[in-house]
Design brief:
- The protein is an alpha/beta fold and 243 residues long.
- 46% of the residues lie in helices and 12% in strands.
- The protein has 2 domains: 136 residues, Rossmann fold (3-Layer(aba) Sandwich); 97 residues, Four Helix Bundle (Hemerythrin (Met), subunit A) (Up-down Bundle).
- It starts with 5 loop residues before the first strand and ends with a helix.
- Helix 1 packs antiparallel against helix 4 and helix 3 packs across helix 4.
- It is elongated, with a radius of gyration of 21 Å.
- The protein has a 6-stranded parallel β-sheet with strand order 3-2-1-4-5-6, covered by helices on one side.
- The chain contains 8 helices and 6 strands, in the order E-H-H-H-H-H-E-E-H-E-H-E-E-H.
- The structure holds magnesium ion (MG).
Length: 243
């Protein structure tokens, strides 16, 4: 019999399928930037940018990757990397620094608008609504989805963007931060996530219970680790643990 008091959730590919959203967001916010900025320059009788899609987008990606190597502590802070990469790219296009900062920020606003257009699994909201009556809930993500604008935000009074803590999972810091904010000991908490390396192992090593959301995986599971194929199976694990 376990006294489980808190459940922490990974978001992407745990509570929704992230695949199409990232592709749409990546292309969408960059195309928006090029279109809006070229229209702004045309209205001021200025020449268009020499950037286009996809080559400008490839350059933007390379700048982020380079920056993550140069400033490794920021490697998981994707919003910071994107902003700095866009600012530098736009300054290299001849924009004054003030305009580059403004347009990069506007592009990231569009990024966040698109990024939160995830479709949670149909069972997710109902499941969280039931769980919140019995457990404290928290979200722990390595991604840079806007934690207050994402569609399930209301269920997560504690929500942690691990990259912005400069400690992306599997670093234990975001787990310990969540447990501290919930005031719960690791053995009284469970983490639920799709990544074996970033969710399951670090949570298990801290002494938490861990639920691995994975359609496949036949390996021997360490103690306190349970596998489910889909988030909708979580209640059966909880019922078994609490019985
Ligand atoms: Mg995930």
């Amino acid at each position: 019999m376990t006294t489980l008091k808190a459940i922490t959730f990974d978001l992407d590919d745990t509570l929704w399928d992230n695949h199409g959203v990232m592709a749409r967001t990546e292309e969408g916010h960059y195309r928006w930037l090029l279109d809006a900025l070229n229209a702004w320059r045309a209205a001021r009788q200025e020449s268009g940018l020499t950037l286009d899609h996809p080559s400008g987008g490839d350059d933007y990606l390379q700048r982020r990757q380079q920056l993550a190597k140069e400033v490794p502590e920021r490697r998981g802070d994707f919003t910071w990397l994107r902003l700095r990469a866009l600012e530098a790219q736009l300054e290299d296009q001849g924009l004054p620094r003030s305009a580059a900062l403004l347009w990069a920020a506007a592009a990231m606003n569009e990024f966040h608008r698109l990024r939160v257009q995830v479709t949670p699994h149909p069972e997710a909201a109902g499941l969280l609504a039931v769980l919140t009556e019995r457990y404290q809930l928290a979200a722990i993500t390595n991604g840079n989805i806007h934690l207050r604008r994402q569609p399930l935000a209301a269920y997560f009074p504690v929500a942690i963007a691990a990259g912005e803590l400069l400690a992306p999972k599997p670093d234990p810091t975001p787990f310990l931060t969540a447990l501290s904010r919930l005031n719960v000991a690791p053995e009284c908490a469970m983490h639920v996530g799709d990544s074996w390396l970033e969710d399951v192992l670090p949570a298990q090593q801290l002494g938490m219970h861990a639920v691995w959301v994975s359609a496949t995986g036949d390996q021997q599971l360490p103690s306190r680790v349970y596998r489910i194929a889909h988030i909708k199976e979580l209640p059966s694990v909880l019922a078994w643990l609490e019985s």
